[in-house]
Amino acid sequence: MKRAWLTPTTIVGLLGVYGVLYLWQPDGAEVLLVVTHVLFAACALLASILALKASGIFEPGVASRRVWLAFGAGMTALTISEMLWIVYYVVGQPIPYPSIVDVSWGIGFISVLASLVLQYRALDVQISRRRKLLVLAAYLGVLLVFLGLLIGHILANPGEVAVMQLLISAYYLIGDLGVAFLATLTLVYFGKGLVGRPWRYLLSSILLFAVGGLAFSYGTWTNAYVTGSNFLSGVADVGYLSAYMLAAAGGYIQLTLRLPSVDEE
Length: 265
Hints:
The protein is mainly α. It is 76% helix and 0% strand. The longest helix is centred in the N-terminal third of the chain and has 28 residues, at 63-90.
């Protein structure tokens, strides 16, 4: 039997090594910044390849094939976004805000959202109205808190935040929480069954994207986000890296999943 290589132990181990480098920074903050974004791009690329390969194990017309294609396309767009950041850095060009990096990221998240919607509909998720309202209330509470922080920052620093920056920040905030909301509902639906195992990784990945995205957004608003400089930046960077790793693990598990008998409808 082929030995699994992308396991929770491997992921935790790699994140542990990254955490040590993050705190130690043996070659300085500039090297850590480059290493961080190279890891983002590499893990995003791995996730996109595995997701697209996973779509190929399903017959054309099957809902699962469309779900994995949409997720793979989203990961591909996120890979492009991460690679564009590296290109900007290598050529020494400051990254404008917003930029093509943000456009690519937005396209990727729309595709990831589409994959979640397709999966949600294919599963015909049945969750009690009370549970849906509780999850919705929790996410609306988080949204209101961060919108309050954003508005407070704008009022405290009049003239420093451009309208376009405000719109992009709100887009990231609402997009992160919207995808996380749908991911949470689907994650609650999945039990401990073998079929849902890949998606537990993917949904956890999406939740970590939301955590990293919220930390990054707040750090960007307050100019506190600088890789390796503080706890908030660490939450954003570790959140994104672990999210990409879990996305790759989800695709890998789908590819290596073996069921006694599966009847696709």
